[in-house]
Amino acid sequence: MRAMTGGEAAVLSLHNLGIRTVFGLPGMQNDWLYNAFFDHREKFRIIHTRHEQGAAYMGLGHALVSDLPTVFNVVPGPGVLNSTAAISTAYALNAKLMCLTGQINSTAIGKGWGELHEINDQLSILRSLSKWVATANTPSEIPILIGEAFHQMLSGRPRPVGLEIPMDVLASTAPADPQLKLRTPYEPPLDEEAIEEVAKVLGASVAPMIFVGSGAQGASTLVRELAEVLQAPVVAYRTGMGVVDARSYLSLHLPAAKELWGKTDVVLAIGTNMRIPAKKWIRTHRPDIIRIDVDPTTHRRFFTPKCEITARAEQALPLLLRRLEEYNAVRRPRETALMEVKAAWEARSAVLEPQLSYLKVIREEIGEHGIFVDELTQVGFASRIVYPVYSPRTYISTGYQGTLGYGFPTALGVKVAKPNVPVVSITGDGGFMFAVQELATAVQHKISLIVLLFNNNCFGNVRQMQVNDYGGRIIATDLRNPDFCRLSESFGAQAFRTDSPEGLRFALRRAISTTSVPTVIEVSVGDMPSIDQFR
User: Fold this and answer.
1) Measuring CA to CA, which residue among 491, 486, 493 is closest to residue 519?
2) What is its EC number (predicted)?
3) The overall pTM is greater than 0.85
4) Do both 356 and 340 map to the same domain?
5) Which residues, at least 6 apart from 231, have a Cβ–Cβ distance to it below 8 Å?
6) 469 pairs with which residues across the strands?
7) Are residues 413 and 528 part of one domain?
8) HEC states along 104-149?
9) Strands ordered across the beta sheet of 251-253
10) How many domains is the chain built from?
11) What CATH number should be reported for the domain holding residue 416?
12) Where does 133-231 have alpha helices with state H?
């Protein structure tokens, strides 16, 4: 243990815990932190952004696609407030995201002196959006608290955490040990009696169904094995997409699964709220429901399950598969029947044009391992029920939070984490303008993201609701847009414009071959059919 500034204690602690990339925006309260980053600059990639929301969203994308703790840094007060939409989205998506923020001098906190960036009770704001928060009061505490933050992100249900460090603590010197060993992440003890009960119920089922969410993303192989043993279709929507390859007869989109709901006797929900079936479908038919989730508070959300297992899917499924060997009934293969359900859904969803044609081109051109980041657009909405996802963590969604404008900056973080595969960000003319300034960040840091900007010159989804649900009373949804291609080029990005799926194919091929700058492809579109008809 040696004497060091609080800034150096923070930087070396992050490095000790595996952090190599930090997204951030420097400012006065963080000067001693960035001074320490300078001293250890060969150990880190610092991606500085043009807005705090950009730093937080980039951290979110990096965390989601890597499944690793990711750190972003902002100044206190307005900097923290600017990042809160991203933190709330991280909370919804169970992301391992750490907000490392500065703070005014410790002697001034809570005094109301009008210090630069002072806000009342910043920690409570972070607490309302996070799993764990703390304030460091001495340099010696910093490694301990950073270690605890990582312990919290890696234990149980992952969610964002926050640590604030006052500027005088970052500047002061004291003995600190940044090489502290991380505590073993907490895992809930496996209840073998609960697993036995679940095995009996599943084993006796006639027509089971599996629903998966983000909590199943790390157990893809196990879920597929379980589905084959049970001959159970696997249903995914948004955060569960990719757990089972969409090309498998066992993989169903949500609307396709609705057709089987009335014939299903047992449902296994793995790492998912299962919100839509729980709130809507269950009114007409109530199968026995089993939950596997690391968070016990989810078990009785919406309904009381027949039985439950509190564990991560990776923990519970191996033992469940072993117990099923004793209890599993012999079932008739369902491949033919499930392929018929998939074909029927494909025929029904054919009305979603032109979204289907654009999504087909994207899927074909980005390849087996390409990553798709959705957005609050008609193409993005359609992707949630028709886009074929082949593997885990290759479809990134905003989940229930629905944060318009999240897609582009989040996709930048995805591309930083996965630089060697194509990453496509779907956006609209409304959402893109939330973070358009981060094109400068992408150019400066050579982040070769591909942005597909579907331009209908309006907030299309809201406008569609005004037309369909409010008698055409259109207000505050039409947009006056810039020339997106010229705007993108002025930042140093590559830009194309098209108005057809085949034009998109040509532009995508050009974009994928570019590895040093981002590409914006503007796609001119008109009104598109809504997916609401399939809810």
Assistant:
1) 493
2) 2.2.1.6
3) yes
4) no
5) 208, 331, 332, 333, 334
6) none
7) yes
8) CCCCCCCCCCCCCCCCCCHHHHHHCCCCEEEECCCCCHHHHHHHHH
9) 251-253, 234-236, 208-212, 266-270, 288-293, 307-310
10) 3
11) 3.40.50.970
12) 141-154, 167-171, 192-204, 220-230
* 76 falls within a domain: yes
Specify whether the CB–CB gap between 257 and 240 falls below 8 A.
Answer: no
Question: What percent of the chain shows pLDDT beyond 70?
Answer: 100
69 and 153 belong to one structural domain: yes
494 and 513 part of one domain: yes
Tens digit of pLDDT for each residue in 4-29?
Answer: 999 999 999 999 999 999 999 999 99
Alpha-carbon distance of 299 to 311, in angstroms, equals: 11
pLDDT, residue 282, reads 84
Neighbour tally for 511: CB within 10 Å = 26
Asked whether residue 23 is assigned to any structural domain, the reply reads yes
Q: Is 508 helix (H, G, I), strand (E, B) or coil?
A: helix
Last residue within a domain, chosen from 319, 344, 369: 344
pLDDT digits (tens, 9 = 90+) for 372-399: 999 999 999 999 999 999 999 999 999 9
Sign for the CA dihedral angle at 238, 243, 247, 253 comes to negative
Give the neighbor-by-neighbor strand order of the sheet with 395-396: 395-396, 371-373, 423-428, 450-455, 519-524, 494-498
Q: Give the chain's end-to-end CA distance (angstroms, integer).
A: 59
Residues 144 and 165: their CA atoms lie apart, in Å, by 13
Q: Are residues 47 and 134 in the same domain?
A: yes
